[in-house]
Automatic annotation (TrEMBL), chains A, B:
UniProt protein name: S-formylglutathione hydrolase
Functional description taken from the UniProt entry: Serine hydrolase involved in the detoxification of formaldehyde.
Cross-referenced InterPro entries: AB_hydrolase_fold (IPR029058), Esterase-like (IPR000801), S-formylglutathione_hydrol (IPR014186)
Class of the enzyme per the UniProt entry, highest EC level: hydrolase
Reactions it catalyzes: S-formylglutathione + H2O = formate + glutathione + H(+)
Keywords, ordered alphabetically: Hydrolase, Serine esterase
GO molecular function: carboxylic ester hydrolase activity; S-formylglutathione hydrolase activity
GO cellular component terms attached to this protein's record: cytosol
Active-site residues (renumbered): S148 (charge relay system), D224 (charge relay system), H257 (charge relay system)
Organism per entry: Acuticoccus sediminis
Record GO biological process: formaldehyde catabolic process
Amino acid sequence: MTVSILSRFAAHGGRQLVARHTSRATGTEMTFAIFLPPQADSGPCPVVWYLSGLTCTHANVMEKGEYRKAAAEAGLIVVCPDTSPRGEGVADDEAYDLGQGAGFYVDATQKPWATHFRMKTYIEVELPEVVAANFPVDLDRQGIFGHSMGGHGALTIALRNPSRFRSLSAFAPIVAPSQVPWGQKAFPAYIGPDPAKWRRHDAVALIEDGARFPEILVDQGEADTFLADQLKPELLARACSDAGIGLTLRMQPGYDHSYYFISTFMPDHIAWHARRLAA
Amino acid sequence: MTVSILSRFAAHGGRQLVARHTSRATGTEMTFAIFLPPQADSGPCPVVWYLSGLTCTHANVMEKGEYRKAAAEAGLIVVCPDTSPRGEGVADDEAYDLGQGAGFYVDATQKPWATHFRMKTYIEVELPEVVAANFPVDLDRQGIFGHSMGGHGALTIALRNPSRFRSLSAFAPIVAPSQVPWGQKAFPAYIGPDPAKWRRHDAVALIEDGARFPEILVDQGEADTFLADQLKPELLARACSDAGIGLTLRMQPGYDHSYYFISTFMPDHIAWHARRLAA
């Protein structure tokens, strides 16, 4: 449960840290970023988990996501994990959308991935324990959000664990991986060819199968080149409508899939979580 | 005067562009970032020039500086040039503090640098012409700021051209390059061994020699590892005090030299410029 602090930066009155620890879930060293707002100096703070998209490490959103100003003002701790195990002994693929940088937040059951690719257990079970053992987080006040593959992670983790989280949002999430090329490539590789096993890792399928979350904020750029083929927010809109889930889906004209999009709407997402995580 | 747009991102209701053009000052292709706030769609806007520090291109502050939210709210165009000419035919040095990425905002007179390293003319003369020919900038309302070597650039350019700028600020600037190792290495290489020729490129010396600017904002981290040897803000404080220049020097406990420092105080700097550039 011990972490080593790799770097430490003063920022917006708080501290942006990068921490590393040995993970029993993945069997590797794992690195995450954690922002502690100034309020964390005087007691536990709510925590929001930010899950990143394909190819990203903890560093991309830490450097480009522009979450610190709003998080410092709201008194939120923001934790940004890596998107997969990494390293020389870890299986990989030449493609950007499989292997290292592309964990898809599942526990792999298939060779060669099953050895280390256990991001579901890492994010759902181990990382909260590690963070709680080392930082002043109030685990009764948790939110989760993410981008693209990380939006898929946030949606599915929250839908499977609705009592753990008070707030949920996503930027350009993969809402139905079973129905799009990214998921139709990754899921067979990681968890096998049977689509019935994919449904616990697919937000739309989870909702169809009865999972619920009170309300969800999603921002989606209309100029996102992945919109029509990979993201398909209309599938989430239909599932939420049928299930009575309060989805706020904002289509944003002109915005693409980049961190310029994420950083633009980051203050709104931090505010969304802050309101629902207030004491 | 034509520019080619290399990339274009919607951000904070405006547009973050990267542009490239052929520079007659440097004899190379030069790349700069320019943020156009939403107000630029309906008419000319004030422009603030941000000069970056050692090793940086236009991209570092564009990705990590977190200036867009405040600039969009204030209606400021922000231009972020490169820190030197670059490319295969351009002289370079293995050190990070000489050659490509380390132009020091001077016009070099010494071999091998004199051929391309003409960043003073580029920033003072050519780039404003290029920007004005292609973007809706109001050149009657200009501000300038920068970080470290770019803070040196901002201070010296504004002190030599006080009528061009209404506002001036810096993050952790090199205030007296003639008196510190970075300048004592770069100035002989670029403009020769005679310290008398360095004074036009040294903010403290310029003030001692009579240059004036009405008021200056400087933020400086107290945990900045370059503070004692390279930055020496006390020299600027003394020169401004002697000259009657209104210097707001804010020593920031715990902050280092990084973009986490810059991005923390960026909103204050944008606000400083916005107030002085209001119509």
